[in-house]
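Q: Second attempt. The first request was missing the SMILES, so the protein and flavin-adenine dinucleotide are both included now.
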Amino acid sequence: MPDHHDVIVVGVGSMGAAACYQLAKRGARVLGIDSQSVPNTNSSYNGDTRVIRLSYQEHPDYVPLLRDAYQLWEEIEQDTGEKLLHKTGVLYMGFPDGEAISGVKLASKTHNLPCSTLTHDELARQFPQFTLSAGMVGALEPEGGYLLSELAVETYAKAAQQLGTKLLTNEPLINWAIDSNGVTVRTTSGTHTAAKLILCAGAWSGDLLRLPDVPLTVTRQVLGWVRPGQPALFQHGDFPVWNIDPNGDGDLTGIYYGFPMSGDTLKLARHHPGTPMPADAVTDETFAADEEEILLPLRRYLPGALGQVRSIKVCKYTNSADGHFIVDRHPESERVHFACGFSGHGFKFASVIGKVLSELALDGKTERPIGFLGLSRFCR
Ligand SMILES: Cc1cc2nc3c(=O)[nH]c(=O)nc-3n(C[C@H](O)[C@H](O)[C@H](O)COP(=O)(O)OP(=O)(O)OC[C@H]3O[C@@H](n4cnc5c(N)ncnc54)[C@H](O)[C@@H]3O)c2cc1C
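A: Got both inputs this time. The predicted holo structure:
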C-alpha cells in the first residue's frame, strides 16, 4: 500500500513537529499533516521566542519532564547545528509572599535547582533597569532563558523530513476513523492510512478530538515589540529574561514578562486570562488597548525601555480547565494518542512532549511521568 504509514501526526506545530522528528529518528514511516504552512504565524508558537525555565511549582512532575526537555533541546541543536535555546537566566520579581517569588523558591528547594535570591536593594544594584515598588524582591534562575520558537518548529520539521517524514501542508484534517487495519484520515485532498495516529492540533483540537467532557477555551493573548529609549540597558548578554508578578502592587494583575533586545526591539507580554476567541479566528487584528497593555508595565517598572511600539501580535492560548496539559491515549482506540490544552506554558516542553508522543505511538507506553496530565481527571 503506497500511502500507508506507521504514524500520521496531525498538527505539525510545537508538539507535532518534535513528534515527527522523534518518530522518524526511530525509523518510523511518518506522515505529518498541517492545515497551514510550517512554520506559520497563526499558531501558538508565533512571535519569535518563548520562555524556558526549570523552577516550576505548578506540579512536581513538571520538573523531571523539564530536565528531559532541556536535554532534548540540546539533542536537536546538536543534530541540526541550529542554536535554539539561549540561557540568559530568568529574573523573577514580586512580593516575597506572591506566587512568583514563593513558587520559584519552593520549586528550587524541592528539586534542588540553582537559584539565588535578591533583596530589594540587591536587585536595584544588580538590575538598575527596574524601578520596583518598595517591598518587591527577586530570584535569579541561571538555567532559564528563551527558545527561538518559530525556528524550533521549522528545525524539527526539516530534520524530520531529512529522516524521511512526508509533510503535507495547507491541508486540514477533516475527519479520522479507526478500523481493524489501523486509522484512516480524510483531508481536503484525499485519504491517508496508518497504523497509529497522533493528534496535536493546538487551538483547533476541540472539534478534532471528539471529547465533549474535555473543555478547551481558546483565548486571545497579546505580544508587543518596543524600540526602547535606552537600548544599551537591555542588551543580550547583560539583561536576562524577566518576569514580574505585580500582585498587590496597585491595579496591575497577571504576570508581565519580557526578553533581552533582539535587533532594535525589546519583546514583552502579559500572562493573564485573555479574552475567549474562536479557535479558527485569524490572529492579525489589534486594538489601541493592546498597545496600552504593553506600555503599562514599562511605565511602572522599566522606564528606560519606554519607546515606540514597533509591532503587536496576537497569539492563542488553548486552556484546559485546570491549566495543566492533556496528554493521553484517546478513549476510542489504543491506536490514537493526543496532546493539547497547553494553557499558555507548553512550548518549553515541546521537545519532551514530542518524545513522549513518539513513545506512546511506537511502544504504547512511556516511562516519563505524564500520569498527572491524563484524561482521568476530566472523565470519571
Ligand atoms: C502569547 C503567547 C506566549 C506564550 N509564551 C510561552 C512561554 O513563554 N513559554 C512557554 O513554554 N509557552 C508559551 N506559550 C505557550 C506555547 O506557545 C503553546 O503552549 C504551544 O505553542 C502549543 O503547542 P501546540 O502544538 O499545542 O499548538 P501549535 O503549536 O499551535 O500547533 C498546532 C498545529 O496544528 C495545526 N492544525 C490545526 N488544525 C488542524 C487541522 N484540522 N488539520 C491539520 N493541522 C491542523 C496548526 O496549523 C498548527 O501548526 C505562549 C503562547 C502564547 C500564545
